[in-house]
Write a structure and sequence with these properties.
The chain has about 475 residues and is α/β, with parallel strands linked by helices. Helix content is about 50%, strand content about 10%. The strands form three sheets. Strands 8-9-10-7-11 form a five-stranded parallel sheet, sandwiched between helices. Strand 9, helix 9 and strand 10 form a beta-alpha-beta unit. The chain binds adenosine-5'-diphosphate and magnesium ion (MG). Keywords: ATP-binding, Cytoplasm, DNA replication, DNA-binding, Lipid-binding, Nucleotide-binding.
């Protein structure tokens, strides 16, 4: 006799009805619609993901018992959930989710051989009794230096790490320029959760990888497997979300994963290189979800934070360095932390290669090489050199304490350009001009501005130097 889904489900309901309260029965089971029975898989439609989650968490053994009685031990249950009813613009979207936990197979993560759970990661490894997290254990909160530039992001990250999925910071979106610590911080959150709650499935994935997996899944006709894998994640860390810009299909898929995880109280953590307001090439419905939780930015670290970061790195490497060298580096590299690290690594290499101490001189030469190499724009050394050449003085003269008029004007012009062309703070500019304080720097800039208004020859000279830079000031770029 061929069974049909309706009959099978009605029989299941009888079994279930014997074991649950009337209230539970009405709330959770009556709204379910049996859809089909094929290959011994019974598909039932549940109204929301929340209902699906609740059934799985509270009644899975009972469901299993009913399915066993009706379809035998090989019988399976599959939920269909309407995730998105659709509208004129977006079509309706439903997903099918196989039942997760069954008495024969208590932990779905162990069932890695079932195709539908197969990890889309190329090399899928197991860690403990679950999937690998792809987190890098070197990133933690202890070695993430706190400063004004990252305080909100760091403390929100800590709150999420302690209570994933429970705080209102869901999703947590960290944004900021390259090399400011986004990846470090989200990995620290992931590592913290894993350490404190081994049962949780934390997954770190870059959006580039996610996109490639998605394309691969489409190509291999394995969307279901791909979705099923991601729907099991408890804490999803998606790095560099801006990468999804313009990728409509990948975004759509992420949208559904996002909805499912979010509704089920799972934690989502994302990073982008700019604020959600500035993201382009994203569907509105996805962008609006990015704003549901908390967005926190990471800014360029201030001087004290840069010094602390350098010290921490040196300590980790077991290397000693004079404080004046550390300060010189901190004053010279203020773009991002990755560049700061690059300088330290290269300094260490130089020192061991040439068997010499890391002193100020070595630091200066290394930074000159690196900065000019990384950043083709005008930097403070170039400014000082060109200005000195133009006025027929030396770079050292510009840093000298002397107040001779023939030195004061070139010095002020160089300071003026430093302000125009670099992102250095007034304090750091002063540092590069013989350790002058910031009021001297302000005064210099003011004097140049005054002279530009009144003195035509002076203005022509300034313009000529400016031409030699062949690039517009930082301030006016973008
Ligand atoms: P992003 O992902 O924002 O481009 P990363 O997280 O990769 O930046 O950071 C670049 C490097 O700088 C990493 O090696 C990271 O450990 C380091 N770094 C960034 N911010 C900090 C910080 N506040 N404390 C310590 N190290 C940091
Ligand atoms: Mg990163």
């Amino acid at each position: 006799m061929l069974k049909d889904s309706k009959t099978v489900w009605n029989n299941c309901l009888k079994i279930i009805g014997e074991s649950v309260s009337e209230k539970d029965f009405r709330t959770w089971f009556e709204p379910i619609v049996p859809l089909r029975l094929a290959n011994n898989v019974l598909t039932i439609q549940v109204p929301t993901l929340y209902v699906h989650e609740h059934l799985e968490n509270n009644f899975v053994y009972l469901l299993r018992k009913a399915i066993d009685a009706e379809l035998g031990p090989e019988g399976r249950l599959e939920y269909q959930v309407v995730i998105d009813k659709g509208n004129e613009k977006n079509r309706a979207y439903v997903i099918n989710i196989p039942t997760n936990k069954t008495p024969q197979n208590k932990d779905p993560k162990v069932d890695i051989h079932a195709d539908k759970y197969k990890s889309p990661f190329d090399l899928y490894e197991l860690e403990g009794n679950g999937y690998a997290s792809y987190l890098n254990p070197i990133y933690n909160f202890d070695n993430f230096i706190e400063g004004d530039c990252n305080r909100l992001a760091r403390s929100a990250g800590m709150a999420v790490a302690q209570k994933p999925g429970i705080t209102s910071f869901n999703p947590l979106l960290l944004y900021g320029g390259v090399g400011l610590g986004k990846t470090h911080l989200v990995q620290a959150i992931g590592n913290y959760i894993k350490q404190h709650d081994v049962g949780r499935f934390v997954l770190y994935v870059s959006c580039e990888k996610f996109t490639n997996q998605f394309i691969e899944a489409v190509r291999n006709n394995n969307m279901q497997g791909f979705m099923n894998f991601y729907l099991q994640v408890d804490v999803l860390v998606l790095d560099d979300v801006q990468f999804l810009s313009g990728k409509e299909k990948t975004q759509e898929c992420f949208f559904h994963i996002f909805n499912h995880l979010h509704q089920a109280g799972k934690q989502i953590i994302m990073t982008t290189d700019r604020s959600p307001r500035e993201l382009v090439g994203f569907e509105d419905r996805l962008l609006s979800r990015f704003k549901w939780g908390l967005s926190a930015d990471l800014q360029q670290p201030d001087l004290e934070t840069r010094i602390a970061i350098i010290q921490k790195k040196l300590q980790a490497e077991g290397i000693a360095m004079d404080i004046d060298v550390i300060e010189y580096i901190a004053h010279s590299i203020d773009t991002n932390v990755r560049e700061l690290e690059g300088v330290i690594v290269s300094l260490m290499a130089q020192a061991s290669l040439n068997r010499r101490e890391i002193d100020l001189d070595l630091a200066k030469r290394t930074i000159q090489n690196i900065v000019q190499h990384v950043d083709k724009e005008v930097n403070i050394e170039v400014i000082q050199k060109r200005v000195a050449e133009h006025f027929g003085v030396t770079v050292d003269d510009l840093k000298d304490k002397s107040r001779k008029k023939e030195l004061v004007v070139p010095r002020q012009v160089a300071i003026y350009f430093a302000k125009e062309y670099t992102d250095f703070s007034l304090k750091s500019i002063g540092y590069h001009f013989g350790g002058r304080d910031h009021s001297t720097v302000i005064h210099a800039i003011q004097s140049v501005n005054d002279m530009l208004k009144t003195d035509k020859d002076f203005k022509a000279a300034v313009q000529e130097i400016q031409k030699s830079f062949k690039t517009r000031p930082n301030k006016y770029s973008n």
